[in-house]
Amino acid sequence: MTAGKPKVSAAAGATVALVLLTGMNFVNYLDRYILPAVQEQVKGEFRLTDNQIGSLTVWFFVAYVLSSPITGWLGDRFPRKPMIVIAALMIAAMNFFTASVHDYMSLNLRHMALGIGEASFGIFAPALLADFYAEDRRNAVLTVFNIAIPVGAALGYLAGGNIAAHHGWRMAFIASAIPGAVIAVLILFFMKEPVRTGGTGKAHVDKGTVRSLLTNKAYLCAILGYAAVTFSLGGISFWMPSFLQRVDGREIGAAGTIMGGITVVCGLGGTVTGGVLAQWWSKKTGKALYLVPALSAALAVPPAVLCFFGPKNVTLPALGAAVFLIFLGTGPVNAATLNAVPANLRATAMAGQLFALHVFGDLPSSKIIGIISDHSNLRLGLGVTLISMVVAAAIFTLGARYAPKLEHSVEAPVAA
Q: Quick check: pTM over 0.90?
């Protein structure tokens, strides 16, 4: 009887961590997608160009990227739970702060501070979950964790657009701050810190070990392929509400409702389907964690072409198909990243992934699309995302050659 208790405790601790961190990831993406839902109101109030609107995301990700090496270093050396709580509270505070923003520069500074909080959470949470679960279960666990992306984004579009339509864009940010603060308190009191799997409780990372990431082909293909997908997904997510208003003739509330509905149904469906497919395929080969994202990126191109350049009557069904296919790879690619590195480098590896995702992905994409839109139109701006999806498919296909074998083990114990 006694021998069974630690396993029960470890399993319960892992489940609590997964539930709470998935909840916070949901809030994380809800906050991030409030801006795309309300940006037409922001643009009108501050008299901005599309280039300037796109720059808001640039400064968000500049702060995100610059803080990632620091948070990765901290995450590999210190307990992550208190840092997750601080990051969650910081995210909530920045959304409350938006109510007092009355100039473009302050809005940029607010976005930079939000980027630091979201980068911290995005690094600490997956690394902590990886210490709770075995390698062969991480795809399933991270698929659950990443279900929060389409659901959170959908509610961001839906709530942001409709609250802005009735109460203005500032109130949309205030409403999004409350759930983040609540979950931060729940994490503080109910979540445990796991023992780091792979040996000691604290990591020992030197320059040589970190440099090894740059020669780890499985890791590089995972993060660079994901960066190419993120260029497309980030650009489409940011500009599609505006596309629906300008090109499809929708009101701000209707555009938010449509994007919310498509994102939650198709994004959630794609995330779950991709996770299940990769879990089944992984029993036969570790390459599945790369092949599913490769198929995801390649198959998303045709419906995306129809969405951007086809007749209006196919815009919404084509958008739904493209979103479903893009989200197929989100769970597997995160599992591929974590499985490609040793236990003592997980937070550093996630920091490297976030750096690549945003420097080569959604940091430049929204601004590039905005610049092209200012000089031509939004259709052509969004068209550049098609190129990066093709590149992503090629990188993931190459990465399958270097995929490590999956090892089976038991969940890690909870730290005393």
A: no
